[in-house]
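Comment thread on ticket #2218

A.B. wrote:
> Attaching the input chain for the structure job we discussed in standup.
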Amino acid sequence: METLGRSLALVIALGALALGTGCTQPQAVTPHVRIAVGGQTLMVYLPTTLAQELGFYREEGVDVELQDFQGGAKALQALVGGSADVVSGYYDHTIQMAAEQRELVAFVTMLRYPGFVLATSPQAAGTITSIAQLNGKIAGVTSQGSSSNMFLTFLLTRNHVPVDAVSVTAIGSAASAIAAVEHGTVDAGWMADPAFTLVKKRNPGIRVLADLRDERGTMAAFGTPTYPGAVLYSSGAWMTANRDTAGRLARAIVRTLAWMHTHSAQEIAAKTPKAIRGEDDALFIEALANSMPMYSMDGAMPAEGAAAVRATLAESMPKVRAATIDLSKTYTNDLIGPR
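C.D. wrote:
> Ran it. Output below, let me know if you need it in another format.
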């Protein structure tokens, strides 16, 4: 009986141990998210990379994989094709897709201005003094169908230049864009920092046709003081199925924006990977200082900004002009606050 009692006690003890350890609920799996970036070396997308370098994605409980693409259109293709979950791209793509009855939702806004600069090549600076004089010329965009392509179409239309009178070619970003502009492969091309600051430094005589890095230039080009640029967006289906994960991403970006606005260009550069900031740290810091006004303060999409983007697209894109689009379904500000 004593032996039986000891055996029963052992069984009870082992059972209690099992209840206290082996039978607990499994730990939640950290969600893995693939973000397609429309040109990781461009400063317009810098918050996407900095959020990873600062550890904010990890602290928010999400494992992020950044995928680099040559232009926002290719990043969008990755999302549509299923090889990416989220795009770090431009807000206007959500409206363009809405015009095709496809739901994309922006859930955190990184830029309050587009951030691109349209500049002539050194060879064409003496003859092209305005956008109207691009008639019959070659213009470079990051990729066909990209936001820079749309900006060009809009500005040509507004300046009474037939879109088909300008030869549009993809020049990518960073080194390829710099080479195309400096070598005169294009008469004018869209660039973002740090590429533009580098070209301007080496070729002081180039002519700026549109500067979308601040309110003044954005107003001159679009007639509006705000024009939201880079955002994180995904499909409506992914947003519905992964709302908590989207919120974690949004909060990581908001924290990054707040960090950027409370640190110097030198401190931001120190946290930027060398592959992105390049070999010339002083140039990167100068370019960053020139571009800081474009970054959002709080990650929110202003309603008037969304309306301005739709109006701009409608002016140059028949499919947007003819479509009935509920702008409130193309973005949300519900995920940028505290949990």
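A.B. wrote:
> Thanks. Noting for the ticket: Residues 116-211 form a domain with the D-Maltodextrin-Binding Protein; domain 2 fold (CATH 3.40.190.10).
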